[in-house]
Design a protein that fits this description.
- This protein is an alpha/beta fold.
- A hairpin with a 5-residue loop joins strand 20 (739-746) and strand 21.
- Helix 26 (585-593) crosses helix 27 (595-603) and helix 31 (779-790) crosses helix 32 (815-837).
């Protein structure tokens, strides 16, 4: 028989075994670059699966976790029974089984009986029975591979173990059996007992570095900054490629978020070998939005965010579907949503109610509906993340689980700088490596005892072949001793929380330390911001930096008023427009006591954001609005306030309270149901005090409550006690005034009028001495001026403050004292208006009050700022300042 000549281009199969995803990808790249067509890159489990044949594959965690959870639910255990329902138990059991399998420990051993191991043995048997076809446990996969060892020459070919530090005892019999059939070589880095290996070692000896330098940084973020500066310096030489550079640490968690943010800012090509946080992606944020609404309950903010991110809701709903809902409404109950959505419906499409309400009811069910919600609201990668999180832990722990999930980085490590764990970098070292976190806490890390297999159950040395502390030590030894690499070290002086960090025990006397100040000038900046920070002249040339420095100097160094403290050009159109609009008592108080705040609020339209978070109690301002709304609705339900009996008043208050309890949650955030009802009851008590505060104002008195005035846009035909649309003008400038008086009592001849202003706050101690209160108490004088215009025939006017939290008599102003208060108030309003027209607007007393929501726009060190500028503010507003001392 004629022998066929061998083709010179015939493919010769051979296999390289690596450890870790980074080494796996880099070996594939190296094979492609070398044109090595017969090379198969695999891990040890994948090698066993290939040799086992068929469709055998190692069972992964995504397959095993739900089966372990079923085993825990269905099997009765001897020792694990009391803890089997604990959160995270499935992952803990699987972690223990992984260690047992890797160490090749028999779970059922007649010579060494153990109830704990027996329980794990029952779970292992359950796994074998319920695994999908083709998926095998590690022990079974190895045994099946051993049964087909004769095919190794054809299936595997010459085998090379590339930079594996260790091989678990589970797989050693397979390697030994392969050595009898094929040639096996091992490029084994580091010093470790490998006497069991029957093949040939190819490892090059490590080169002990003569001198290593460890850069000492302020904290983990500063370490990342210095690492990126180091990368930029290497790339700037025109020779070093990104693929030559790697940054590593024993554990990435402390530095990972800083690396993600700063690398994006630097626009450097960095590959995250361990994956990026799922929450840094849109898919992860979609899952987070769903988890937030499912676990923490309904609110307008949560549903709004979910509707923007969810593929299902964003497609099914119009972009402006929440346009008709008040942004201040909390909407914490499905019933509130149903009422709000009832009137909303797109012109072409199904009613919004039919789309949203089923989702809301499922969200109310919470974690029980997690699977259903995921399938309904998520798609693609977001659905995959959601299902992965449910496999790893109970749905109730979804928020915590999502923070631990990672997504594979889509960039290629072959042309990027690599950010990886040190153990992964051992399999794919680079020419330039920087090792972070060489502190006593971070490198090497201590070993954690197995929670289910502590020392008294199973000896730790028998359970773990290569402890974490030893693995970290070996990784440091291998990376720093790699002959073709230049290594730089770094550590932090303090942790992110501020705790002092000692240097790692791995840093011997041969390692020199170089302290790096956080504010030092680097030779190579990693980003534009870093460059400007390092080169002050360049930064100072930028208009925005000049403006910021000027503002800071004016705030913190100069005692006199500056443009950054307030002020603007004379007769500014925006100011004139704001002054031409109708004013209220509240806006005039702000004008008198905080002119700059008036400009921010009324001229520029600045407002503090309303966060729809369910409060435990209403704030003072909102509670006051509640009491006034209760009074208005109650009065509308009574035919005559003066002649109303206590029973009629109570009935009207009951009806008003019922209406508010139903409708207020649709327009603003209210406390939970029980606290909300208690809040309404307290408001009823105070409203009852307002309606029954005293007797009638003489025979035949007509009483009115919640009386509006100065509202030209009003469509009401009400003319008693005055026309609502009649204009009210105050001051020399004729400023329009509008508002609502809480109660007005008018005598039959309209010559006597009594006005009552209700206060829901705490009664001041010196209430009887207060007239204008430094401009804080303007209602009595202001409403008296209003009454004179609306009821010209009134010769006797009494203005009162009624504090509803006490039974004390109201504080009255009348006669000459009221006249003097009116004149004083109008004079200072004219002064404030003239000052505003002239461009004089600086902070006043109310600007620094704790209740001022616009304080956030003032400098941070507010007390020192006030003390520094107070004299200058008073000098600039010297005409208005005397009002602040008025009693």
């Amino acid at each position: 028989m004629q022998r066929r000549n061998k083709c010179p281009f015939a493919m010769e199969r051979h296999t390289v075994v690596v450890e870790g995803a980074l080494a796996f990808r880099m070996q594939r790249v190296a094979a492609a670059q070398a044109g090595d067509h017969g090379l198969d890159v695999a891990t040890v489990p994948l090698l066993a699966a290939r040799l086992a044949g068929g469709f055998s594959r190692p069972a992964d965690h995504a397959t095993l976790v739900p089966i372990v959870a079923r085993a825990l639910a269905e099997i009765t255990f001897e020792e694990l029974e009391k803890v089997k329902a604990r959160p995270g138990m499935a992952r803990a059991v699987l972690s223990s089984l992984d260690r047992v399998w890797a160490a090749e420990i028999r779970l059922v051993d007649p010579l060494n009986p153990s109830a704990r191991l027996s329980d794990l043995g029952h779970i292992e048997a359950f796994l074998r029975e319920h695994l999908p076809i083709g998926a095998l446990l590690p022990v079974d996969l190895r045994d099946q591979a051993l049964a087909r060892i004769d095919h190794a020459r054809t299936v595997v070919g010459p085998l090379h173990l590339h930079r594996l530090v260790s091989v678990d005892p589970l797989w050693r019999p397979l390697i030994e059996a392969l050595a009898s059939v094929i040639e096996i070589t091992w490029d084994a880095p580091g010093t470790r007992d490998r006497s069991w290996f029957p093949g040939k070692f190819l490892a090059r000896p490590l080169q002990r570095p003569e001198q290593l330098i460890c850069e000492v940084c302020a904290d983990p973020r500063a370490e990342v900054v210095e690492a990126l500066r180091w990368v930029r310096a290497l790339l700037s030489d025109g020779v070093t490629q990104a693929s030559d550079i790697a940054i590593a640490s024993a554990d990435l968690s402390v530095w990972d978020d800083h690396m993600l943010v700063l690398a994006a800012d630097a626009d450097l090509p960095i590959h995250f070998a361990g994956g990026v946080s799922a929450l840094s992606t849109r898919a992860g944020q979609t899952c987070a939005a769903l988890a937030d609404a499912m676990i923490n309950g309904l609110s307008q903010d949560r549903i709004r965010r979910l509707s923007l991110l969810s593929p299902y809701l964003s497609e099914a709903l119009p972009a402006d579907w929440m346009k008709g809902i008040s942004t201040e409404a909390g909407l914490f109950e499905p019933e509130h949503w149903a009422q709000s959505l009832e009137t909303l419906s797109p012109a072409d499409g199904p009613p919004i109610l039919t789309i949203v309400m089923p989702v809301l009811y499922d969200l109310v069910d919470g974690a029980k509906a997690a699977v259903k919600l995921g399938k309904l609201l998520l798609r693609g990668s977001s659905l995959g993340l959601w299902q992965e999180a449910l496999r790893l832990a109970p749905a109730a722990a979804m928020e915590m689980t999502l923070t631990s999930l990672r997504i594979a980085d889509e960039s290629d490590p072959a042309n990027n700088v690599v950010w990886a764990r040190a153990s992964d970098l051992v399999g794919a070292p680079r020419k330039h490596m920087r090792l972070l976190g060489l502190s006593s806490r971070s490198w090497p890390r201590g070993d954690n005892a197995d929670p289910l297999l502590p020392e008294h159950v199973l000896n730790e040395r028998a359970l773990v072949d290569l402890p974490r502390l030893e693995r970290d030590r070996l990784a440091f030894e291998i990376l720093t001793g790699h002959p073709d690499s230049k290594v730089t070290l770094s550590r932090s002086r303090r942790s992110a929380e501020g705790a002092f960090l000692a240097k790692s025990g791995l840093l011997q006397h041969r390692v020199a330390e170089r302290p790096l100040s956080r504010t030092r000038t680097p030779e190579h900046a990693f980003s534009e911001g870093d460059r400007l920070l390092a080169h002050a002249k360049d930064a100072l040339a930028l208009p925005r930096i000049q403006s910021a420095i000027s503002c800071w100097t004016n705030w913190t160094r100069r005692l006199e008023t500056t443009p950054h403290d307030g002020g603007f050009r004379k007769d500014h159109p925006a100011v004139l427009r704001a002054l031409s609009l109708p004013q209220s008592a509240t806006s005039l108080r702000r004008l008198l006591r905080d002119p700059l705040g008036y400009v921010w609020l009324r001229v520029l339209g600045m407002t503090a954001p309303e966060l729809a978070i369910q409060p435990l109690q209403l704030d003072a301002m909102t509670f006051g609005e509640l009491v006034h709304e209760l009074l208005r609705l109650a009065v509308e339900r009574m035919p005559n306030l003066v002649s109303a009996t206590p029973g009629e008043i109570e009935s009207a208050l009951e009806a008003a309270a019922t209406s508010i309890a139903e409708h207020w949650p649709l327009t603003r955030a209210v406390p939970p149901s029980l606290l909300w009802l208690d809040t309404i009851e307290e408001a009823r008590r105070r409203a009852r005090r307002g309606l029954t505060v005293d007797d009638r104002f003489g025979p035949g008195t007509h009483s009115f409550s919640e009386v509006p005035f100065g509202t030209p846009e009003s469509q009401a035909n009400r003319s008693d006690p005055w026309r609502e649309d009649q204009e009210v003008l105050i001051g020399r400038s004729g400023m329009l005034l509008k508002g609502r008086m809480d109660r007005v009592d008018v005598k039959p001849d309209r010559r006597g009028v009594r006005m009552s202003d209700y206060k829901t706050g705490k009664t001041p101690r010196d209430l009887r001495e207060v007239i204008l209160g430094g401009g804080a108490e303007v209602q009595r004088a202001l409403y008296a001026v209003t009454i004179k215009q609306l009821i010209p025939e009134a010769s006797t006017i009494i203005s009162r403050l009624v504090y509803l939290d006490t039974m004390e008599p109201p504080a009255r102003l009348e006669g000459d004292m009221l006249e003097q208060a009116e004149e004083t108030l109008l004079r200072f309003i004219d002064i404030a208006v003239e000052g505003l027209r002239a461009g004089i607007a600086y902070p006043g007393p109310d600007a620094f009050a704790g209740y001022n929501q616009l304080r956030i726009a003032l400098p941070a060190a507010l007390d020192r700022y006030q003390g520094r500028k107070d004299e200058g503010f008073n000098a600039a507003q010297h005409k208005l300042a005397p009002l602040w001392r008025e009693r």
